[in-house]
Design a protein that fits this description.
Distance between the termini: 35 Å
Structural class: mainly beta
Number of strands: 53
CATH architecture of the largest domain: 7 Propeller
Oligomer: single chain
Strand order of the largest sheet: 8-9-36-35-34-33
Largest sheet: 6 strands, antiparallel
Number of domains: 4
């Protein structure tokens, strides 16, 4: 049976994938990201989350989904139009083929459960293949006729995602492509400039090395964490990256202290993700030279957020006479309630507080220390009193966490139009909370809303009238710096609020990092995180699709004084250091061999190995092997234990697939070209091999010149049309050739196009989705 996606379904697909928030849509934050099921025998009804009653179209299933949900598609043949590529290629909702309705969508098998999509241009097929869809070669696809408005949007998106930008001053309300007020663009580093080749970014934090005062951005990516030197804000430079399991969620905080023996500072970054990875500990002490992953704490698997208490947010060091702690929010343990870790050994955080039974999920957290008369409301009148502000989806809870072994809940408060209590921060005088709800704009049809709570009485907080912005974007995360509040607001980018009087908040500045499309509506594209605490005063912004922004703040904040030095590092004399788990894998068909002998222990020896192969099987050997029962991707975990009982876990994914009768399949050659006058650049990286890898590239440029590079360039001597061929050879010697004509002319600037349907355009697919979203929205407005 074949399914043709009509125009209505196409609109729903695109709308759903850009995560237009419609009534009843799950935000999918509380650690449980639903799977939704599609079969060509199903019915588009309900929420698609029942395996026995799947939905019929992918578009309808995507419409029911929230950030991070998965849509699993059963075997069968599906006919799509060119526009339908968007929902396959977005990271916001993960669409995967290769499943079977009869086996209740249990296991993905790329060959056994063939899920075929026809009508997709060849240049997008590799993306579909990686998601479990079978590729069918079509004849030359039909071109999409775009409106002038959409063409202009595509041009803007190409410009802002293709190379670094800045500096650009905000003049007359714009900085080139970006709407702005009182904020200048110092630099923009798009995703393509990061070494890990990410498809999306997520949260961000900042770090200043007190040994040399260099400033850094710590930015989460879908496939890891990158450290970028922004000391020269107009020319950011990536220092290094640490890989991680794929997830659109990652959160980062940092801690810095002074080693009194050496007089130098030490620093670490702590990273959580909702993937099955635990807490990564990254050593920043050797910046600007290098970074390294020194530990992965496996006390929990995935978690939504990490927070650092009792620190100065500019230096990331402990406050005077206070001890810093790590709070983990939304871990897949104890229903996602908060977990507190000691930093007595910063490289090896240790759990010291599990929440009381029934505490419930915490999505995000802030802490503050009070010493005024409100300490009388803390347990045993603690003074100073460490308060935890718990944003737990439905209310704002205030806890006294001074005694980590005996947490005490002081109050629980909600507010009008509560939909999803997400996060927030406290005012400079610690008398108010600014609260973000991630669902109120869409559920109640209101503009960007910041809820305000007077906490002068901790036991009985008073909700004040909220601040409302000029448009409908969703507010996400915010931070107070003196009398300014710096807020990432998805499609509106950065918003800076004047909070001198919390009862009369005003908009002091803004910078829209997401200009395409321009509509600032209640959707999840755009600015994810903000960090305003660098000593330079510059602001760091992470945009989900567009990358890293370094901005100059001209709103003149007052009332903020950062610490100028760091507290001493905790003494770790006699403290056992945890081992480091490390392993390699080698897979052939369904059989994999593993080797954990590279695992190390700096102050002892490794006494045991514990493997989890991700398919319910395990081993305690140093170098075991495992044969999987079915094609698929499996998370393999190795936990090593040292002679003092300390443990460490390393997790990595392996993908296995049974070859077709052991016969090698030839690779597929594919390339793009871009010509300006007589100079052409070529890119053959889209070439692929279904059962191996590409071992070599051989180019013939049609003018007697050749190359063996993956992405070469060639300068032609004269105007004309040349036949360019690329021959690729795989690791078993099979070859494939692709030829296409390019036309060059010295008198005109342009690019030659291949016309065989196999070459692809550059840039992210996301901009196409956004362009058609705008067209659909304009049509609705016209009605």
């Amino acid at each position: 049976m074949k399914i043709s996606f009509n125009k209505l379904n196409l609109a729903l697909m695109i709308t759903g994938l850009s995560l237009t928030v419609i009534g009843g849509m799950a935000l999918a934050h509380s650690g449980a990201h639903p799977e939704r099921f599609v079969s060509n025998t199903g019915i588009d009804k309900g929420s698609c989350n029942k395996k026995m009653t799947p939905c019929r179209t992918i578009g309808y299933a995507v419409q029911q989904s929230g950030k991070g949900d998965k849509v699993l598609v059963a075997n069968g043949e599906y006919i799509a139009k060119e526009e339908d590529i968007f929902y396959f290629l977005s990271d916001m909702v993960i669409v995967k083929g290769g499943y079977n309705e009869q086996t209740k969508f249990k296991t993905q098998s790329l060959n056994g459960n063939r899920t075929t999509v026809t009508g997709i241009p060849a240049k997008y097929r590799e993306n579909l293949k990686s998601k479990g869809f079978h590729l069918v070669r079509d004849k030359k696809g039909k071109k999409v006729n775009l409106s002038a408005e959409t063409i202009a949007m595509l041009a803007t998106y190409e410009k802002i995602t293709s190379k670094k930008e800045g500096p650009i001053n905000c003049v007359g309300g714009v900085a080139d492509s970006y709407a702005c007020n009182n904020i200048d663009l110092l630099s923009h580093m798009p995703l393509g400039e990061f070494s890990a080749n990410p498809t999306s970014a997520n949260d961000i934090w900042g770090f200043t090395d007190l040994d040399d005062n260099r400033e850094y951005a710590l930015i989460g990516l879908n496939n890891g964490t990158s450290i970028v030197d922004v000391t020269n804000p107009e020319s950011p430079v990536e220092v290094g990256s640490i890989g991680g399991l794929s997830s659109i969620w990652r959160d980062i905080k940092a801690y810095q202290c002074k080693d009194e023996e050496t007089g130098q500072h030490k620093a670490w970054a702590y990273v959580t993700t909702e993937a099955n990875q635990g807490l990564q500990v990254i050593d920043l002490s050797d910046l600007p030279n290098s970074i390294s992953l020194v530990n992965t704490v496996s006390e929990f698997n995935g978690a939504h957020n990490v927070y650092m208490s009792n620190i100065d947010y500019t230096t990331n060091s402990a406050l005077d006479s206070m001890e810093a702690f790590i709070y983990v929010a939304g871990a897949r343990k104890n229903s996602g309630a908060y977990r507190v870790f000691s930093l007595a050994d910063p490289a090896n955080p240790e759990l010291i507080t599990s929440p009381p039974v029934g505490t419930g999920y915490i999505h995000d957290a802030t802490t503050l220390v009070i010493t005024d008369d409100r300490t009388g409301q803390c347990a045993n009148s603690h003074n100073p009193c460490e308060l935890l502000i718990d944003y737990n989806e439905s209310s704002v809870d205030i806890w006294d966490m001074t005694d980590k072994q005996n947490p005490f809940k002081i109050s629980s408060t909600t507010y009008t139009n509560s939909s999803y209590t997400h996060s927030g921060w406290w005012s400079a005088d610690k008398q108010y909370l600014f609260i973000h709800d991630e669902g109120d704009e869409s559920d109640f049809g209101i503009n960007t809303t910041v809820n305000i709570m007077d906490i002068s009485d901790l036991a009985n907080p008073v909700v004040l009238p909220p601040w409302r912005g000029p448009e409908g974007s969703i507010d996400h995360n915010g931070f107070t710096k003196g009398n300014r509040y710096y807020m990432s607001a998805y499609r509106s980018g950065l918003m800076v609020l004047d909070v001198t009087d919390p009862a009369a908040i005003s908009l002091a500045g803004n910078f829209d990092t997401f200009p395409v499309p321009a509509a600032n509506t209640a959707e999840f594209n755009g600015a994810w995180g903000a960090y305003p605490y660098l000593p330079s005063g510059n602001i760091l912004i992470s945009d989900f699709e567009i990358g890293l922004f370094v901005l100059k703040d001209n709103t003149n904040p007052t009332g903020y004084v950062a610490a100028s030095n760091a507290a001493s590092c905790p003494s770790t004399g006699g403290v056992n250091s945890a081992p480091t788990a490390s392993f390699t894998d080698d897979c052939n068909d369904l059989a994999c061999s593993f080797n954990g002998s590279a695992s190390t222990d700096s102050d002892g020896s490794i006494t045991s190995y514990a493997w989890d192969f991700g398919d319910t099987k395990s081993s305690t050997e140093t170098s075991p092997s495992n044969t999987y029962a079915a094609d698929g991707t499996y998370d393999v975990a190795l936990t090593v234990t040292d002679n003092d009982g300390a443990t460490n876990t390393s997790i990595s994914s392996v993908t296995v697939s049974m070859s077709s009768g052991g016969v090698n399949s030839a690779p597929t050659a594919s390339f793009t070209n871009n010509c300006t006058e007589l100079v052409c650049s070529f890119n053959g990286s889209a070439s692929s091999d279904s059962d191996g890898n590409i071992a070599s590239y051989a180019w013939d440029f049609g003018d007697g010149s050749s190359s063996t590079e993956t992405s070469p360039a060639n300068t032609y001597a004269a105007d004309g049309t040349y036949s360019v061929s690329l021959t690729v050879t795989d690791n078993e010697g099979a070859t494939n050739v692709l030829s296409a004509n390019v036309t060059v002319a010295k008198s005109t600037a342009g690019s030659g196009d291949t016309d065989d349907g196999s070459s692809s355009g550059s840039g992210s697919i996301a901009f196409l989705m956004l362009a058609f979203l705008s067209v659909i929205r304009l049509r609705k407005i016209d009605k």
